[in-house]
Design brief:
Blueprint lengths: L8 H7 L26 H5 L17 H14 L3 E5 L2 H12 L5 E5 L4 H11 L5 E5 L15 E7 L11 H10 L3 E5 L4 H4 L9 E4 L14 E5 L2 H13 L6 H12 L1 H20 L4 E5 L9 H7 L6 E6 L4 H9 L16 E4 L16 E5 L5 H18 L1
Helix pairs in contact: 1-3, 3-9, 4-5, 4-8, 12-13
């Protein structure tokens, strides 16, 4: 007999972690607001000391709501298991702390999310971890940076400002041969458009605040591990550092997860249409979007990804900060805010770009855009009006 066909992403998103019979028929599990769990016997109270994570023992260690969300994310990732965190940064930091100790060597992408960069340089380095940044375009050349004490390689592809695509399979193959753990921040693509585990990654991290929750109303992180060994390490770190997520935010994450593939398809289509429009504007020097055929990372993106999200960059020709400010402050639909992945469109001027130390990256004025769920024509008109303000102040 042939193996049953695996369900598609939309089906998994709709049904993973779905168990109405356990919750009196409710489609999603209810929100469990709890800290204390009552036990009927001393034996039950103390439980199995060898397995402190089993069952529902305390609000911080998991409820039916968190377990449903973690199970759903793990299913879509193709992972062994997942754990929630209080935020995307909380997920990043907890995973790093779970693996690293004094004397270890960490290799981390030079284009990594700025708060993660701050954590490794200001916290991990002070704890005795040797932190080394690598060029995100290094590919198999990363082998030249390995040391006997290299414990972990931390990737982000694409990065959320410069949008460089890394050769993830080349890097993970080299790491596996040396028993070096690999992690990736997969918030941009989500497990709908990129499957880290199928490309050799051990741990996949998400700012679930963004696309997974999808409505700009939750603070949530989630991390998935490829196998039981990695999951046990991750879960132990999660438990010992006291990570937890609010019950309502976990529920919002699970609610958003159900429509994730459908929303991403709209984000993707609108962003690509906007990118094509912007590439033809005289004010624009270059569009940074790996799904565009002319992008430097397009070949790797096409090989490894099945789609793209709504976040991309636009490098303007030389304009004054005053002109760019007039452009972005007058937008009607593209609002300014330090996030992305919600239903609303966002625009952020890159006057102060994140630090880069390995390879210089000073592109000038960069606009980071997130294409929301509005109509394309309305977003295009908003940008056209913005360009008129830019010209008026030039």
């Amino acid at each position: 007999m042939t193996a049953p066909k695996p369900p598609g992403a939309a089906t998994l998103a709709a049904h993973a972690g779905y168990d109405p019979a356990s919750h009196q028929g409710t489609v999603n599990p209810p929100v469990y607001h709890t800290s204390t769990v009552i036990f009927p016997t001393v034996e039950a109270l103390h439980g199995d000391d060898a397995n402190p994570f089993g069952g529902m023992r305390y609000g911080r260690t998991g409820t039916p709501t968190t377990k449903a969300f973690e199970g759903a994310v793990a299913a879509l990732e193709g992972a062994y298991g997942a754990v929630v965190a209080s935020s995307g940064l909380g997920a990043c930091c907890t995973a790093l702390l779970a693996w690293l100790k004094a004397g270890d060597h960490l290799l981390i992408s030079d284009a990594v999310y700025a708060p993660t960069r701050n954590f490794v340089t200001r916290i991990l380095a002070n704890l005795g971890v040797t932190v080394e940044f690598y060029d995100p375009l290094i590919g198999a050349g990363i082998r030249t940076l390995f040391r006997p004490e290299t414990k972990l390689v931390y990737l982000e592809s694409p990065s959320s400002w410069s949008f460089e695509i890394q050769d993830v399979p080349a890097i993970t193959a080299l790491c596996r041969a040396r028993k070096i753990t690999t992690m990736i921040d997969n918030s941009w693509a989500t497990p709908v458009f990129f499957k880290p585990m199928s490309h050799g990654v051990d741990v996949s991290i998400h700012a679930a605040t963004k696309y997974i929750a999808g409505h700009s109303d939750a603070m949530l992180g989630v991390t998935a591990a490829s196998d039981k060994t990695n999951y046990d390490t991750l879960k132990t770190g999660h438990y010992l550092t006291g990570q937890a997520a609010g019950a309502d935010d976990v529920f919002y994450g699970l609610r958003g997860f159900r429509t994730l593939p459908i929303r991403l398809a709209r984000h993707e289509a609108t962003a690509l249409a906007l990118a094509d429009f912007l590439a033809g504007r005289d004010e624009v020097q270059r569009v940074l979007h790996p799904a565009l055929p002319g992008d430097p990372g397009h070949v790797l993106w096409k090989r490894d990804f099945t789609g793209s999200s709504g976040l991309f960059g636009v490098l303007l020709k030389p304009y004054s900060a005053r002109a760019v400010t007039a452009m972005v402050e007058g937008m009607a639909l593209f609002k300014m805010g330090w996030s992305w992945g919600g239903f609303e469109s966002l625009i952020v001027p890159g006057f102060h770009l994140p630090a880069r130390g390995v390879r210089g990256w000073e592109p000038g004025i960069l606009l980071r855009l997130h294409a929301g769920l509005e109509d394309f024509d309305d977003l295009k008109d908003d940008l056209i009006a913005g360009f008129a303000r830019l010209a008026a102040e030039a």
